[in-house]
């Protein structure tokens, strides 16, 4: 089940956000700055069997502040009219075993990516986002 946490609702879900950010740190060596975190929307996947097992974080990045990040530099060069680009970091943090025992996890993996895509699309549409840069 996915839970969408907007910037305004972050205070109500501090432990959920913290647990998800810990997964991103461990599995992807990714950290979100405090400024980006305040503006971020979190989509967290959680169930009773696995707890928090993945999700996505969407956050704005100013193209001007891109530094050495090549994809943002290339985007800014192609679309100079945009001052900001939204980025998404997606993480599915369960090992998927292809044996018959792991078939449930494989189905969970498939469902996760279908639902996370729909959720990211819905969040992007509600915020009027035209482009999202993805990291996995």
Q: How far apart are the termini?
A: 20 Å
The radius of gyration over CA amounts to 16 Å
Across the major sheet, the strand order is: 1-2-3-4-5
Average of the residue pLDDT scores: 85
- Shape verdict: globular
Number of DSSP strand runs = 5
Instruction: List the secondary-structure elements in sequence, H or E.
Output: EHHEEHEHE
The helical percent reads 40-55%
Question: Quaternary state, please?
Answer: single chain
Helix count, DSSP H or I runs of 4 or more residues: 4
Biggest sheet statistics: 5 strands, mixed
Low-confidence stretches: none
Helix/strand/pairing category: alpha+beta
**DSSP strand content:** 25-35%
Question: What can you see in these coordinates?
Answer:
The protein has 4 helices and 5 strands. It has helices at 14-28, 34-39, 70-78, 103-127, and strands at 2-5, 41-47, 51-62, 84-92, 132-135. A 5-stranded mixed sheet has the order 1-2-3-4-5, sandwiched between helices. Strand 4, helix 4 and strand 5 form a beta-alpha-beta unit. The longest helix is centred in the last third of the chain and has 25 residues, at 103-127. The two termini are 20 Å apart.
Brief write-up:
This protein is of the alpha+beta class and 136 residues long. Helices cover 40% and strands 26% of the residues.
